[in-house]
Amino acid sequence: MKKTSLTFWFAASALLWCATPPLSGAAAGKPLEIYWIDSEGGGSTLVITPEGESVLIDAGNPEGRDAARIHKVATGAGLKRIDHLVVTHFHIDHFGGVADLAELMPVGTLYDKGLPDAPPDAGGNPKLWAVTSAPYREAKVEKRVQLVAGDLVPLRQSTHTGAPKLSLRCLGANQRFATPEGVSLPENAFCGTVPPKPADNSDNANSVVLLLQVGEFRFFDGGDLTWNAEERLVCPKNLVGTVDLYQVNHHGLDVSNNPILVKSLAPTVSVMNNGPRKGTSKSAMEALREVKGLQAMYQVHENVAGEGAPNAPKEHIANHGDLAKDCAAHGVKCTVSPDAGTYTISVPSRSHSRTFETTRKQ
Ligand SMILES: [Zn+2]
Fold first, then answer.
1. Structural domain contains residue 90
2. Ligand 1 centroid to residue 328 C-alpha, Å
3. What's 354's DSSP letter?
4. Neighbours of ion ligand 1 (CB under 5 A)
5. What is the residue range of 212's domain?
6. How many domains does the chain have?
7. What separation in angstroms does the CA of 129 have from each of 97, 110, 126, 296?
8. d(CA 296, ligand 1 centre) in Å
9. From ligand 1's centre to the CA of 221, what distance in Å?
10. Is 223 part of any domain?
11. Which of 62, 78, 97, 216 lies most in the core, judged by the most C-beta atoms within 10 Å?
């Protein structure tokens, strides 16, 4: 073959390559996206499914700031409404922004573990609770649903041929945990390796625990679940299994992130929705670092609590410095490929992105 015809062949092949859809095993369709929105150490995780449905897990604090931030990210991602809003528990940094958000954009179904008339924390002030919970009780949402362990949040499946199955399951609520059906679970060898802590009588222990799964990709969001409840979720048998992505419980505080839970989940990647001075405890960071197979840790905020304060690498942190007041509210994002075989974590404020392979480790 002469040089000219060889050149022509390459050019023609390139054209053909561009014009022909790739013949790999990748399923057609859109990726699933997860956004960790900065609520200065609150909960605010937005999931957009391949079919374009939205699930917001917690809505940050009241007084407008966090609802505005959530609204900005949601509309920037093309959303006109929040289809499903799940509140993990009744602390102000998780349910406080619900009423504000419902004023900014339509909210479909609001899911929670049952709003109590009495204060959710033992010893709470009934009058104060009546005041703080009133906007939530009156929030303009289309429907309200109480979640119990084992419930599925109904999500539309992708209509694309070969697209992986999608599910969002409530694994636990109010310290009752669901046992997977039709599976014989082995005893968990991590149980008993770490002592329990004194009983937690706050509503953190009652958090709704969620597992989002698309294909083999698994994402765990346990709200602010605390030490002893975390142990009960995986002991004597691990009711969750292993996960790819772990939203660090309770902003990384040391009353949560029991190493028994963290090692049992064995995540490949962790994302912490912390504040400059909230969460990111030494013990939580150590528990993560002890996980075999953990490849990367991400934070919404740099931990500025003094010299030597534990932190993820700089490019894995969205907001740097002590910025609670004038914070640019950068976020962390996960994009799961349409076939769910890989997922990419990006930190746009640091121009960072890294792709990980989905691994079913059990
Ligand atoms: Zn919290």
1. yes
2. 20
3. E
4. 93, 224
5. 28-357
6. 1
7. 16, 20, 5, 39
8. 22
9. 12
10. yes
11. 97
Joined together, the tokens standing for residue 206 give 């009652």
The domain that holds 217 is classified in CATH as 3.60.15.10
Asked, for residue 2, whether it belongs to a domain, the answer is no
205 CA to centre of ligand 1 in angstroms: 11
Q: Distance between CA atoms of 188 and 237, rounded to whole angstroms? A: 5
Distance 279 CA to ligand 1 centre (A): 9
Q: How far is the CA of 271 from the centre of ligand 1 (A)?
A: 14
pTM of the full predicted structure? 0.91
Residue 213 lies in a domain: yes
The Å distance, Cα 58 to ligand 1 centre, comes to 9
Counting beta carbons within 10 angstroms of the beta carbon of residue 183, is it exposed (0 to 12), middle (13 to 18) or buried (19 or more)?
A: exposed
Q: Is 270 within 8 Å of 246 (Cβ atoms)?
A: yes
| Mean pLDDT of each 10-residue bin along the chain, 362 residues long | 40 40 57 97 97 98 97 98 98 98 98 97 97 98 98 96 95 96 91 97 98 97 98 97 97 98 98 96 97 97 92 96 81 97 98 94 52
